[in-house]
Write a structure and sequence with these properties.
It contains 11 helices and 12 strands. The protein is of the alpha/beta class. α5 (106-116) links the parallel β3 (91-98) and β4 (120-127). The protein is elongated.
């Protein structure tokens, strides 16, 4: 079995067509079919079944696909890592950033890194955990800078805790509660809300009210985009919960104001770096991870942190 056989299998599975795979790989259909048959003969198992509009994976092919993708990703990453040692300022970095950092905290660090290392290609994926953890396990990312989900830790990864982000309740300047003081939990429960982040945040938010014997808010809008959240809150009578450092970012400056609530309906999330301990890190990756550690040191000077 050769690497190209796995590659041809992966592309065919993704496109669901031998012809389309041949076109993408600039090969003949017979060449792709022969490569897949060689792989099937080697394994002694059928990997595809014919359908009216192409091919579909058999149950054996479905089992092989994630493993084949992991092998192919590991090969590409290993080659990139070895090649990058030719120069400390070359290579490729693939990182995952939690959604709430897409317009706050991470932006300046990424911009500084891009300016300092113009020959380093950089791919940035914005997601929440545990999606970032799943991608790290499959070696699709070098590391993640994220908020940790309470109770979730993949044993194959290292979770390097670097900060805890105090949160507060925020609203648009024209919201009725924007100028109020000592807002009670009962009043908060009567409001409409918008949240950014994963389902874990929604669960924590709801539990906050139910644990106090109060019905949770009847309406809750959720978005993975901080930019969209800012639009929703600034143009509607919605409340939101955000880390103070995010609410004070340039994107949200002047659009959201803190609400003087007796309690904030969310726990203060812990976060930091997430990465696999068993892969070689290139100089570029090591440098960028160091910049994020320095960023968390500077975060302590931000009010509310």
């Amino acid at each position: 079995m050769e690497m190209q056989h796995l590659h041809h299998f992966i592309v065919t599975a993704r496109l669901g067509s031998v012809g389309k795979a041949a076109e993408e790989l600039n090969l003949t259909q017979s060449g792709i079919s022969r490569s897949i048959r060689t792989l099937e003969d080697y394994l002694g198992l059928p990997l595809f079944k014919r359908e009216a509009r192409g091919v579909a994976l058999t149950e054996f092919g479905q089992q092989l696909l994630p493993r084949a993708q992991g092998i192919w990703n590991a090969r590409a990453r290993t080659l990139n890592e070895m090649m990058s040692y030719k120069s400390l300022k070359s290579g490729h970095v693939e990182i995952g950033i939690h959604n709430v950092f897409a317009y706050a905290l991470a932006t300046e660090t990424l911009a500084n890194f891009a300016a300092a290392y113009p020959n380093v290609d950089m791919t940035v994926v914005t997601r929440s955990d545990p999606e970032l953890s799943r991608r790290l396990v499959k070696e699709e990312l070098d590391f993640g800078f994220t908020l940790f989900v309470p109770g979730f830790r993949d044993p194959r990864l290292v979770y390097e805790s670097l900060f805890v982000l105090p949160c507060g309740t925020y609203a648009s300047p024209n919201h009725p509660l924007a100028g109020a003081s000592g807002v009670s939990i009962d009043v908060l429960a009567e409001q409409e809300w918008a949240l950014a982040g994963s389902t874990a945040l929604r669960s924590t938010f709801t539990t906050f009210f139910t644990d106090r014997g109060i019905l949770p808010p009847a309406r809750l809008v959720q978005s993975s985009s901080i930019a969209l959240l800012a639009e929703l809150v600034s143009k509607n009578r919605l409340l939101t919960v955000l880390p103070h450092v995010v609410a004070q970012a340039a994107l949200l400056s002047g659009r959201l104001v803190p609400v003087d609530a007796l309690e904030t309906p969310a726990s203060d999330p812990e976060g930091g770096l997430v990465y696999r301990p068993d892969i070689i890190r290139t100089p570029a990756v090591t440098m960028l991870m160091g910049l994020f550690r320095e960023l968390t040191d500077r975060m302590r000077d931000v009010p509310g942190i």
